[in-house]
Every structure is written in structure tokens, then in C-alpha cells.
Design a protein that fits this description.
The protein is mainly alpha-helical. Helix content is about 55%, strand content about 0%. A two-stranded antiparallel ribbon has the order 1-2. The longest helix has 27 residues. The radius of gyration is 22 Å and the shape is globular.
Length: about 450
């Protein structure tokens, strides 16, 4: 167990009636970075239709699931929860903050910024070898970019909450060993936040997530696999009859694609996924008339059915979450004991969204345009930052141009990643002359 979990690096404010971890949760909830998520894609572009989750509604539901997971573990395994130091407020705070770093347009925005920063750049290898990663950006926001106190940068969160936010507690590693371990694709912090990382990781085994980080990650998977499928079911984008059933024609494709996405898959992975498909088929069988057959039209019975199904799935995955008992725990191992069959089911549910939504040609065309918007904005911002003469750079970012030891490319990526999608589109239209806009409208406030 790490010592002094409630401590802060800066202690920028006096205490009040709340616990230290409650203060963390509230600081995230009231941050402008959290409110910005209302204008950021979850899967489908924010604002496209009211039926879809955006990053804000997704984060709220992840926080709700995470809180219920923690409460259930504390209620059912009080001694184990106390042994591992589980705190409900820390889990909820981490869940609320886990997606703060997502740039405009979701994962395509993340890929675009990483590509810009790491592609060869003339005589130089690249603009910034650390690239861009949404999780590392979330950590950077709460420790550096968020504005809350005059005494320090960031939200000055406790050691425990910062550690809980680290789903990937390591820096980017492009060595062969790092690539084999997946550390070149997912990482949790940039070197500019190394001191904050060291502070919150004191007392932890290298690369081992905290219990609260594990629960945050599991809550994210549950919410993603259930709530996003609900969205696409409502807009009739999922051909359930082709996916669910003993003779469903697309079942094997879903299984194969899920296997391809499984990093470090065991030798029996395909058999496990087939077993998971059979279990899901059994779960869905009770909804054959209302979900599996015919189009969703929003009837009373169909709405009852989808609510019942999502509740059934979420309850199933929460109740099967267990903590490792103190007598069975060894330092360095996972603190969550989750039967693999439930993880396998969630993998399949997540793959359905990838296969039927993320791979659609209409989304691909949309993402091509979004990539061009971000590349254009980055180039415009970078030029002004390098010259230290901001003219079109929004005033909200002017303080970042001051000499702070960071590369101009890192600052430019901070600026682009901090925009909502509406702001990014409006600024791109104005800078390219597509729309002149109004001189009274600053676009970014």
C-alpha cells in the first residue's frame, strides 16, 4: 500500500467539510475540461443526433458504473476493500476524468495528432517522439493544463486520484520490448509530467495499476459495450439477426475480428470467444420478439426491452466483480478477480460496434474531413507558436506560448486537443475562408 494517499503535491487550498477525495471528484466535475466533453465524439460526431452518447454523457455513465462497482465491492468484501484501500470517491473521480484528454472527433483525432507529431519532419526525425495519447493527455490536463489555482498548475488532485487515472502507468516506449508489451500504442503520461507521475506512483509496483484504476477501466468497458450498442440499436444500425443466434451468419466474423484486437491473446482465445457468443445468444433469447426481430420503432414494448437488456448486462458485470482476498494477494498481481467469461463477453459486445459502425464508409468519409481540419489547425497554430506572435491563436491559449520549456509542437497539440468539435470546425472554416463569421464572435472563449 502506498503511504499518504490523500496528500497533494501543492496543497493549493484549505480543507472544508468534504473529504480530500470528495474534493477531487468535485474539482473534476466543475472543470471546464469536463464540460468541454459535451462537444466531443464518443463514436458518432457530437451533435449529429440526440440518440447518441457524447464523451460527456459517456463519462457520466462510466462514473455511475464505477461508483456502483466500488460500492458493491465494499459491501460484499469489506475486509478485502479495506486491505486494498478502496475508496468510492477516488473511483468516481477517475471515471469522470478518464476521457478529459480526448481531442476533437474522438479516436480519429487522437490518431491524427499522434501521426502529426511522430511522422518524419524534413531534416528532423519528427516534431515530438512522444506523440499524442488521450490517456496521457488526460493526466496532463489534471496536472498542468486545467486552471483552478493561482499557486499551481492543474487541479492539484490527491496522489490516490492521480494514480487511479493511470490506466497505463508508464511512458511511451518504442523499443522492441516496449512494442511487444503494447507500450508504444498506449501510455499514461508524457515526460513533462514525470514529477507528477513519480509523486502519485510512490509505493506502487512498476506497471501495476491501482485497484481504483482497474475498476475505472472495467467501468469504462462496461459502459462502452452496453450503452453504445443501445444507441446503435435505436437507430437500426445493428443487424442483430445476423449476429446473435446459433446459426447467425456474421457471428464468426465478429469472433475473428475480436480475436485480432485481443492483445496478448491466449492459445484458447477463439474457443473462449465462441463460448461467450453462445452465452450472449442465451441472454438475448428472451428479447427475440422485441430486439432481435424487426426494426426498432420506439414502441412501448421495444423501449421496455432495451432498458431491461442494458440493466441485465450491467448488473451481470457488476455483480461478478470480485476483489482478491488478502490471504490470496501477492504484490504485483491484479487486485480485481474477474471471471474471464465476463471479460470475453464484453470483448464481443465492443467488437459489434467496431464492425458495424466504425468500419462504415460514411463514417470513413466523415473522418477524412475531420483529419484535414485538425492537420490544418495544427499547422496554423504551430507557426504562430514558433514565432511567439499569436494572432489567430485563441486568447485562451496565449499563456501556453510563454517560455515553459516545452516544444512548440507539444503546445500546438495542447491547443488543438482542447477545442470542442464545434470550435474546431468553426475556426477551420474561418481560417480557410469557407465562412467569414463575425468579428464579434471569438469562436473559442
Amino acid at each position: 500500500m502506498p503511504v499518504e494517499r490523500p496528500t497533494r503535491r501543492h496543497s493549493a487550498a484549505d480543507g472544508d467539510q468534504r473529504s480530500e477525495f470528495q474534493r477531487d471528484r468535485d474539482r473534476v466535475l466543475y472543470s471546464t475540461s469536463f464540460r468541454r466533453l459535451d462537444g466531443v465524439t464518443q463514436i458518432v460526431r457530437a451533435g449529429e443526433a440526440d440518440v447518441f452518447h457524447n464523451r460527456l454523457t459517456h463519462s457520466i455513465k462510466v462514473a455511475q458504473v464505477g461508483r456502483r462497482l466500488a460500492e458493491y465491492c465494499i459491501r460484499e468484501q469489506k475486509d478485502a476493500a479495506e486491505f486494498h484501500g478502496l475508496d468510492v470517491e477516488v473511483v468516481e473521480a477517475a471515471c469522470l476524468a478518464h476521457d478529459l484528454g480526448h481531442p476533437p472527433f474522438g479516436h480519429i483525432g487522437e490518431e491524427t495528432l499522434d501521426d502529426i507529431l511522430t511522422r518524419p519532419n524534413g531534416q528532423d526525425p519528427c516534431l515530438d517522439p512522444e506523440g499524442f495519447e488521450g490517456n496521457a493527455q488526460s493526466f496532463r490536463i489534471v496536472t498542468k493544463l486545467a486552471i483552478r489555482f493561482p499557486q499551481c498548475e492543474g487541479l492539484d488532485l490527491t496522489r490516490a486520484t492521480l494514480a487511479a487515472l493511470l490506466k497505463y502507468p508508464w511512458a511511451r516506449d518504442n523499443t522492441e520490448a516496449g512494442k511487444a508489451a503494447g507500450k508504444s500504442k498506449k501510455w499514461g503520461y508524457y515526460i513533462s509530467e514525470k514529477d507528477d507521475f513519480d509523486f502519485c506512483r510512490a509505493g506502487h509496483e512498476p506497471d501495476q495499476r491501482t485497484l481504483e484504476a482497474e475498476l475505472m477501466d472495467w467501468a469504462d468497458d462496461i459502459a462502452y459495450s452496453v450503452h453504445d450498442l443501445e444507441d446503435f440499436h435505436r437507430c437500426n444500425a445493428i443487424p442483430w439477426s445476423r449476429i446473435i443466434g446459433t446459426d447467425a451468419p456474421d457471428a464468426e466474423k465478429i469472433i475473428d475480428n475480436s480475436l485480432k484486437k485481443w492483445h496478448g491473446a491466449p492459445t484458447n482465445a477463439k474457443g473462449r470467444l465462441r463460448d461467450a457468443h453462445r452465452r450472449l445468444t442465451g441472454l438475448f433469447e428472451g428479447f427475440r420478439a422485441t430486439i432481435l426481430s424487426g426494426a426498432y420503432e420506439g414502441t412501448h414494448q421495444q423501449r421496455l426491452a432495451i432498458r431491461s437488456l442494458t440493466s441485465t448486462l450491467i448488473g451481470r458485470y457488476i455483480r461478478e466483480t470480485k476483489l482478491v482476498e488478502p490471504k490470496d494477494y501477492s504484490p504485483g498481481q491484479s487486485r480485481v478477480s474477474l471471471d474471464q467469461i465476463y471479460e470475453d463477453e464484453v470483448k464481443l459486445l465492443k467488437q459489434i460496434a467496431r464492425d458495424y459502425i466504425l468500419s462504415s464508409p460514411s463514417l470513413a468519409a466523415q473522418q477524412l474531413g475531420q483529419r484535414r481540419i485538425l492537420e490544418s489547425l495544427f499547422a496554423d497554430f504551430l507557426g504562430e507558436i514558433e514565432d511567439k506572435k499569436p494572432r489567430v491563436l485563441p486568447r485562451r491559449f496565449h499563456h501556453l506560448v510563454e517560455d515553459n520549456g516545452l516544444s512548440p509542437a507539444r503546445i500546438a497539440s495542447d491547443c488543438v486537443a482542447s477545442l470542442t468539435e464545434g470550435e474546431a470546425i468553426a475556426m477551420h472554416q474561418r481560417l480557410t475562408g469557407i465562412s467569414s463569421g463575425s468579428v464579434l464572435d471569438p469562436i473559442v472563449r
